[in-house]
Amino acid sequence: MKKIVIILCMALGTMSCQNYLDIVPDNIATIDLAFNNRLGAKSFLYTCYNYLPDDGDITSNPALIGGDEMWLHPKGPDLSSFFGSTWLFDLANGEQNANNPIADFWTGDKQGKNLFIAIRDCNIFLDNIQRVPDIDDWEKKRWIAEVKFLKAYYHYYLLRMYGPTPIIDDNLPISASPDDVKVERQPVSKVVSYIVDLLDEAVIDLPLKIENETVELGRINQVIAYSIKAKVLVLDASPIFNRSGVFDDLLSSDGQKLIDKTEDDKKWVIAKEAVEMAIEKSHEAGIHLYTYKDSKVITDSTRYKMNIRGSFSERWNSEVIWGLTFTSTDHMQRLAQPRFNSAHISTHQVRNMLSPTMRMAELYYTGNGVPINEDVSWNFDERFKTHVAGEEDRYYIKRGYETANLNFDREPRFYGSLGFDGCIWYGNGKYDDNASYHLEMKARQFAGVMSSEKYNITGYLPKKYVNYENTIDGSGNYSIERYPFPVIRLADLYLLYAETANESGAEKVEVFKYLDLIRDRAGLSGVVESWSAYSNNPTKPDSKEGRRSIIKQERMIELAFEGQRFWDLRRWLDASDVMNEPIRGWNIREASTSDYYKVITLYDMKFNRKDYFWPIQTSEILINNKLVQNPGWK
């Protein structure tokens, strides 16, 4: 199938990433040939899928290492060799620019894909599919619906990155004049309406769920379409597009405001209705919160850890709404996999390099289910000091191992998502709760700094990425259990429900009804009960502002390292506060406990107002005088 897609792409000449928007179809004779029969049309359908961004590729998705969740050691030949392209990490280092933008999904440069070419090919498909003679009507309708979804999704992806974007509803004929080709950016309200209308048209002819899972998992169904519609409308209701005075200077070439100048609370009501429908359809399709149900005998402590880990990394688990089958998570797993013993030192298959930041480690709750700076029984001021793990810690931390107080008495999602010095790492060939691997991450220890190449820079690893059934043999060969990258899982919708319910004025009980299910899956009591019993701010859940703060932190915890935080901080307009704080980690080059457990600053992040939207490449602005640049970029 992949070969067919590649050959067809070559035949169609979908080509020049630098051609301005590339919305005029070429090679008409080849296009005619492609739609002469069902096989050719199906190949073109897969071509339309082929443009989907590689969100599960750590070197292609800017939301994974372009923000403040994970860090890498200083760049150099060694990093490029073992990691791959480091352009996306340059985003986190403040190196974005307008002349040659990083992760450019407008022109397709620097690890981006040209989504205007993607939209063009979707239009070609929709213009020609009716000519195919040997295809059943029901299948034709389904394919049309899939491509309408893809066309909507590509517009949504551009909207989220660039803000107001051109709407490419139809391809222009070859006879189009240069002025006809000069499309302009449209107001956000118009773009959102266009995307939603396309999704509404598509959903009618999509299957509720994929029945032929052996060959069709990953293709679009109703649940995916309803979920993306919900996310589009949540984005539209969020402060980045729904707060007056923020981007009043973003105007079209004729002076028209491209972002609505007045705040509209009704948008939250509309978004809530869309989220409710997406959840309803998810339940109807049998999608439910994942819980670890392996036959191995384990404690509740381990099971709660595995609930969060498996919800992301267990292949096609019950919670996945949309998984990307074409994206390999192998690279991601290798970069997150620690070394446990001497057999792992020399192999390049285990790289031990992805490094969650200290702010992420501090984000997770205490074992009582409240923030570490609110828990009346947890000593926040002493969090960077150390003590030795006891018998009561044995399912989370190696008995007798000295580690930071920050790593003790935390919620199960902390232990299921993060690896750290002294932590228990269930799986990788050891499935005995009382005889699991543990990490040793100080300098010259197995998972610590041993060379100038494969090492962790903060003292934390994204355990969540690594499937627990992966194994490393005595020769260092790494056997990987592959899984599709989950673009959307049910917990995401549950958290969006809490957010939209709160912002639209729902009662406290309704706001937390789905969020508390997520907490229960993590072994925590409900929000109201936890705050009442353990927080120094027990009335926080009683106000809209307090609930908003709780919901945001819940999203940051539950969806950590999944590419959601990067966009959430932007749509909330929180990035200018959160991402102007230092990136910190442990002093990983030290071997002694006292020296290792000193917090050091790795980088002083800078996030400016202009960083909320991607720059349009300068050359595109020069070619088309109707295009306007995003504020702050030159």
TrEMBL record:
Lineage, top-rank taxon, reads Bacteria
> Might you report a single GO cellular component term?
cell outer membrane
List, for all copies, the residue spans of the domain called SusD-like N-terminal: 114-232
Please list the residue ranges annotated as the RagB/SusD domain: 319-633
Q: Which SUPFAM superfamilies match?
A: TPR-like
Q: Which InterPro entries has this protein been placed in?
A: SusD-like_N, SusD_RagB_dom, TPR-like_helical_dom_sf
Its annotated compartments are:
Cell outer membrane
Q: Which residues form the signal peptide?
A: 1-21
UniProt similarity note: Belongs to the SusD family.
Recorded protein name is Carbohydrate-binding protein SusD
Q: Which organism is it from?
A: Draconibacterium sediminis
